[in-house]
Input
Amino acid sequence: MVIVTVTYPTSPASRFDFDYYRSRHIPLIWSLFRDYGLMDARFIRGVAIPGGGPIAYHLVALLSFSSADAFGRGGARHGDEIGADIANFTNVTPILQINEEFGAPEPGHTPQARPSKSDDPAGV
Output
């Protein structure tokens, strides 16, 4: 499985129509990529930066595909249609990245902190 991230960076001149994205673009993604290994999709809207300031991304989409090859076949088949729809909700060029999970602690498990040099009598 791979997770494709699609990020829409912000800028002073950028626009993003969340209503269109939710009502039209998300259903389009599902309809075109379901047969190309799309297994799950999460959409995360930027709302704040700790300490203030402008958000970095309007939206981050996390699209889980059965494989990078399946995603590639779907993109080859429907990429132009998806690309054409982007202008309907934003003037931002999205950034795509193919990712794989890198491991995470088990739920409820807290990794042990590594001792600092001052905690180690040998100073290592």
